[in-house]
User: Which sequence fits this backbone?
């Protein structure tokens, strides 16, 4: 069974190629009680995500070697709804505005004060409803269902079922708000933030996801409807 973390432990992933700054940020966040993982490049970070699972928040340097910070964040957000704060030495309003419209929750310009970074982290994490499940690679829902978000795979009775990036992102959002109805409007804005998507597109993806996860899609156990309002993810019975 996959380990579950207590609700108060929030997991942050820091991607920064400056070793001194990376060590300082990790120490700052660890002292504040966060669980912290680190990487020095986008490629290294992707390996960490697949090995250890998704964090609750990413703090990403813009100018990483190889895959830059924007590319890494966009790649992760193709199949998840992990919020990101960008660290940048480039105080360019156009770049920052583009990032905020595209994939970022916030940004911090170097050099920055520790109090500023902590304040922005706390603000972003306020919108994450559920810290009660571990973002490990394989999340134990119940005896019938386990979810591997980074590798976009569900295990139904231990048999792997491939999920599309959109299905995985939808599932991640619903799990982040487990046992609460998530409105159609919120789901549309998070899944397709750069597109004008209609409800029918959302319903189609829910239908496809239910066909993969549910024993009886017409009487769903995990993804339930609040007609006219939204969808809710319900934990299965693990006992």
Assistant:
């Amino acid at each position: 069974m996959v380990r579950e973390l207590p609700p108060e432990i929030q997991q942050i992933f820091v991607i920064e190629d400056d070793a001194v700054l990376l060590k300082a940020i990790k120490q700052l966040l660890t002292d504040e009680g966060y669980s912290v993982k680190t990487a020095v490049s986008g490629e290294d970070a992707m390996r960490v995500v697949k090995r250890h699972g998704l964090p609750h928040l990413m703090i990403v340097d813009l100018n990483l070697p190889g895959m830059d910070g924007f590319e890494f964040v966009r790649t992760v957000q193709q199949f998840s709804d992990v919020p990101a704060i960008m660290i940048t030495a480039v105080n360019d309003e156009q770049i920052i505005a583009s990032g905020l419209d595209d994939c970022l929750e916030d940004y911090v310009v170097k050099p920055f004060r520790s109090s500023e970074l902590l304040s922005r982290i706390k603000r972003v994490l306020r919108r994450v409803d559920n810290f009660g499940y571990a973002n490990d690679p394989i999340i134990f829902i119940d005896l019938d269902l386990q979810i591997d978000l980074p590798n976009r795979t569900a295990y139904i009775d231990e048999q792997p079922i491939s999920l599309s990036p959109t299905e995985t992102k939808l599932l991640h959002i619903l799990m982040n708000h487990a046992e609460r109805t998530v409105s159609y409007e919120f789901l549309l804005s998070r899944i397709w933030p750069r597109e004008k998507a209609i409800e029918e597109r959302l319903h189609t993806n829910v239908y496809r996801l239910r066909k993969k996860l549910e024993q009886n899609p017409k009487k769903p156990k995990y993804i339930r409807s609040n007609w006219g309002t939204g969808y809710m993810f319900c934990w299965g019975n693990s006992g």
